[in-house]
Specification:
The protein has about 375 residues and is an alpha+beta fold. It is built from seven helices and 19 strands. A hairpin with a 4-residue loop joins strand 12 and strand 13.
């Protein structure tokens, strides 16, 4: 099989359009979806992912498994599959191929356990309640005990008639993109670790892949122009999971790649995430750390993660930012410079003294996890 080559790419304002090679070499990979001489004799023209999308209804349910502990099932797979913490989403669309009879499901397992909030009151904003400072008021808190199941991401080929799995492809993380399947016996999917992959739709054999720079959430689409077939995919990382977790060290702007047989354009440059070393040098009072912990949970954790523990996703982990950013945190949380990127303005929600306590938690956590052979900056009272 020939190695991928790119067809063309142009940058239009802030959006990059990249036209690149689909695949070439084998009959099944190089065949057009509507080509009678390809892997299928059916004459099928695909003009977008919606032509072959499986439809299903997702219903979150809360399951009690002990007197005060629950498992939140945030949804169900199509066709009745269910798992702890499964997160189906309109961005991660499955696809159905009537020729193979299989549904290709981007299975995401992101387990989380919640515990009933016994002192719940409507619209309460209580330190320690997860994101209650930003309007979350669900009556449940995230359980400090980790769930028993582990996160996973996989491509699952499911036979809805036999009600069993036909094949699967395992990935390094959840939050992989939606799928596209064609009459040429192919399945395409982008992954959380920044690859675009083609599989044999019947057997699951990986036929081709190419790097795309960053994680993929969207499903691909295929279409023809003047008799030539293209496959396009919107590459970009984000969503409720991707906001604070990532599976690649590469960061790219929102980019549309379009692949075609015998393409020859060079790929765009990939850029690594810009991260600092583990935070140090922010002056704080250790006595502020306990209250700062509760304030951080109520206002920060589901976007920024645990300082120095998570790597960060679309939003940076505050354990790996410049010292001056945390030292001047008030200038960021009150009418700060990141509001146009979606960061809330905490004016009226937090006080100056609250920010000082959050600073203590951020730097104190970084100091607590710092390897023992690396001298900490050391807390100092303000």
């Amino acid at each position: 099989m020939k190695q991928p080559r790119f067809f063309a790419w142009i940058r239009v304002s802030s959006i990059t359009l990249a036209l690149s090679l689909l695949v070439a070499g084998t009959a099944s990979v190089g065949a057009r979806a509507d080509d009678p001489g390809g892997a299928s004799s059916h004459n099928m023209r695909l003009v977008g992912t919606n032509d072959l999308q499986a439809r299903s209804t997702y219903q979150p349910t809360l399951h009690k498994y002990s007197p005060n502990r629950y498992i939140l099932f945030t949804g169900h797979h199509p066709l009745g599959l269910q798992g702890e913490g499964l997160l189906p989403n309109a961005q991660h669309l499955p696809s159905f191929n009537p020729l193979t009879g299989l549904v290709y499901i981007p299975a995401q397992n992101i387990p989380i356990r919640v515990v009933e909030e016994k002192t719940w009151t409507h619209n309460a904003n209580s330190p320690g309640q997860i994101h209650s400072g930003l309007g979350w008021n669900l009556g449940f808190n995230v359980d400090a005990d980790p769930p028993k199941s582990l996160p996973f991401g996989r491509l699952l080929a499911w036979d809805p008639v036999k009600q069993k799995e036909a094949w699967r492809a395992e990935y390094v993380a959840p939050w992989n993109g939606g799928t596209l399947t064609t009459a040429g016996n192919l399945v395409f999917q982008g992954t959380a670790d920044g690859r675009f992959i083609a599989y044999n739709a019947t057997t699951g054999e990986k036929l081709w892949e190419t790097p795309v720079g960053t994680g993929v959430v969207a499903a691909p689409a295929t279409y023809t122009i003047d008799g030539k077939q293209y496959v396009s995919i919107a590459v970009g990382w984000g969503g409720v999971f991707g906001i604070m977790i990532r599976a690649t060290e590469l960061q790219s702007p929102g980019t549309v790649y379009t692949f075609a047989v015998d393409g020859n354009a060079p790929p765009p440059a990939f850029v690594k995430y810009q991260t600092e070393g583990l935070l140090s040098g922010v002056q704080y009072d250790p006595n502020h750390v306990p209250e700062g912990t509760l304030l951080y949970l109520s206002n920060c954790v589901f976007c920024h993660g645990v300082p120095g523990v998570d790597k960060g996703g679309n939003v940076r982990n505050l354990g790996y930012v410049p010292t001056e950013m945390i030292a001047n945190l008030k200038d960021i949380v009150f009418k700060g410079p990141f509001r146009d990127r979606g960061m809330p303005d905490f004016t009226g929600k937090l006080k100056d003294e609250d920010v000082v306590k959050i600073q203590a938690f951020i730097q104190g956590t970084a100091d607590a996890i710092r390897p023992k052979d690396v001298p900490p900056a050391g807390p100092a009272k303000q």
